[in-house]
Amino acid sequence: MLSMLVFLAVVALLGSAVQAGEEDVTPTCRAVNAEVDGALRSSDYLMHIQSGAYWLDDFSVQLTPTLLGVALPFKMSMDATNGMVRPLDSLTRNGTASGCSSQIKTVQVPLRYDNLQVTYDATSQFLLHKVPGKLVINLDPVYCDVLIVQGVNGCRLGDFSAKLTGSHFHFNPNSSSWLSSMVANMLSSLLQAQDTPTSSITIEKLQANVNTLFVRAWCELSLF
């Protein structure tokens, strides 16, 4: 009988210890909107004084013109250099930012870029004709989800994702000749309709901007 009572007492003590341990690691979360807005003001200011732009990688692309849905037996090509994305000092919060604290601290932040524009110096080749000009890509709002992790290994970007909601391509030739205008219209339509590497190149730079400036500002200000 005594042994049974001892056994039940041990089980009760172990149960209490496990429950206490679970309570210790249960995260407590709260909105951190004001703190995130403060970090964004700091990072946007730093981006502004650094010209508000990032250089983009060069790329080349070959495009297949079509007529009434039928591919034509020739291609157009374009080489794009000296790319930039701006204004990167337009990063804002796009919803409630949530900070959770347990053994580590995490901050989940929805962000948004408005009025981003990508520009490249570009040269298009159509048959034997080369047409130099400027490639301009106006981006619809870009939505980002950012996770910041702070623990024994420091404060860092834990995860990043971005969604481009739309892109509008315009190739503006240096010359106003009828041939240049024709190539420009054809190229703009093809770029709009076919895949190009601009989306992945742009997202890579947006992540770099968020990591270098916003995450850095958050971690250095120790707002949460």
Automatic annotation (TrEMBL):
Name of this chain's protein: Lipid-binding serum glycoprotein N-terminal domain-containing protein
Organism the protein comes from: Apolygus lucorum
